[in-house]
Amino acid sequence: MNALDDSNRFILIRHTDADAWIETIADEMAQILNHDIASEGRARMLLSGGTTPAPVYQALAELDVQWDRVEVSLVDERWLSPQDRDSNAWLVRQSLLNRAEGAHFDPLVRVGKPLPECVHDANLQAQYSQAPSVAVLGMGNDGHTASLFPGSRDLARALESTLPYAALDATGCPGSNQWPLRITLTPHGLRRCRQRLLLLRGKQKLEVLKQALESNNAQLYPILNAIDIDGPKLRIHWCD
């Protein structure tokens, strides 16, 4: 059996049209948020940065959601000021928050605080917030998700952490580019999310995912830590 056909581990939705990919994901996210708003009064979502999810966030901001009842935070962040254009916080503000009027945003980096304090604050925030309604994930060509980079010196510690967030030094990992210091959601943090969506574009990403599934090595391909965990199956939206 093709590893990509293993419906026992995840749900893979293939889209043939980029616009349909954007609209379908945005609609699904709005439904998840509205469900939790209706049942609990509020909803919380964790978002990834990058160019892949940005158009989805733009479409989501235009949908009928009570944004003043939504809390937004991040799956991971580079050790940058939230005002830095290369930060995930900046991307989320520009693509979603500037349009989703009333939504509350909790950045992971707090200006003036050292990295350990920012991680402590992120874990404290997660502890006293409701479980995330949905987390939006991406995957690099090296098989990383969030800021769980293969080969990083802190990977094993982050994977084994019993806290939602961890600091990670990805020095020497090509996928981290010029930003090796990170704050990242851990597998423990992922388990708290009621729904997990993985957004992929391009045939190369699908091939990387296939290699990861065939390897069954979650240290070599950290994306597996978002797949083989308790809870609802990871929903993977792919478009060429």
CA radius of gyration: 17 Å
Question: In percent, how much strand structure appears in the residues?
Answer: 15-25%
* Count of helical stretches: 7
Quantity of strands, as a count: 10
Helix/sheet category: alpha/beta
Which parts are unreliable, with pLDDT below 50 for 5 consecutive residues or more?
none
Amino-to-carboxy terminus distance: 22 Å
Task: Give the biggest sheet.
Answer: 7 strands, parallel
Strand order of the largest sheet: 1-10-9-6-2-3-5
Shape: globular
Give the ordered list of helices and strands.
Answer: EHEHEEHEHEHEEHEHE
- Whole-number average pLDDT? 96
Which labels suit this protein?
33% helix, 7-stranded parallel beta sheet, 10 strands, 240 residues, alpha/beta, single chain
